[in-house]
Amino acid sequence: MTGGTRRVTTPDGVELALHRLRAHRDGRPAVLLVHGAFTNHRFWLHSPDGSDGGAETGAGGLAHFFGAAGLDVWLADLRHHGDSAREPRRGAWTFEDWVLHDTPTLVARVREETDGAPLAWIGHSAGGAAGLCWLARVAAAAPIGGIVTLGTPGPRRLGPVRRAAAAATVAVSRALGHFPARRFRFGNEDEAAEIIAEWMEWNVRGRWVGVDGFDYFAGLAALSTPYLGVAGSSDWLFAPPRACRQVVDRIGSARKSLTIARGLSHRGLVVNPRARTDCWPNIVAWLKETL
Hints:
The chain is an alpha/beta fold. It has one domain (4-156, 212-290): Alpha/Beta hydrolase fold, catalytic domain (Rossmann fold, 3-Layer(aba) Sandwich), CATH 3.40.50.1820. The chain has eleven helices and ten strands. The protein has helices spanning 62-68, 95-113, 126-138, 160-176, 181-184, 193-205, 216-219, 241-250, 268-271, 275-278, 280-290; strands at 4-9, 15-20, 30-34, 72-77, 119-124, 146-150, 178-179, 191-192, 227-232, 256-261. It has an eight-stranded mixed beta sheet with strand order 1-2-4-3-5-6-9-10, with helices on both faces. Strand 9 (227-232), helix 8 and strand 10 (256-261) form a beta-alpha-beta unit. The longest helix is centred in the middle third of the chain and has 19 residues, at 95-113. The protein is globular.
């Protein structure tokens, strides 16, 4: 990536990696792509065949697609992922650390380097939830112009099967000190125990509530930032469309919508070849209109 990698430090002293697809100095709108659990910034780069052909060949991933559309593309590695710092000891970090520390640090650095150009947060799954929760905290003072989430569900009450799966995820994570995502082929990163455990527990309880009692989901009602939710019609386990609709209904912004991508699964929103024609162009159109 010609834009290079930056090292930024969170308020609690964790070093994060922030990558820029290529250098720009013309004030074009910027997008910050944030992965979810079990993966890292490379999730956005690769085509479904695993290559990194780039926008020039038409074979690259969503990051290259955004770059070819004229956007300034930034990719984050949240703590314990990609090129960012790893957990120093078992149970040291939680999902709320993504929200309270990683998110504002990454946004501030992108805004600094782009001289305050229009910026949107693009998050997949839990990466979308981290952005939403942070925005719920800052509400009207949000320093970004839009947020797009792909496969980010609301904290719905789970049925017996999903509740059992979530409880098993928490138990395995705490027993091993991490969740073995690579073994189960959920992604290329094993997740830190308390990061995935807290996220699972929030959803099992049906409430996104922080350690200080702040209700993140309720706080979305004060959000005025334009919002686009994207759901896959074939995502029946992680973020079904009805669960993504919960987020849209809760957000207070006057400009909000949900797009359902037909035939795409949770990861398919980013890695399925059909997403290039059936999903990504709609996101680009929304970003250009919004930013």
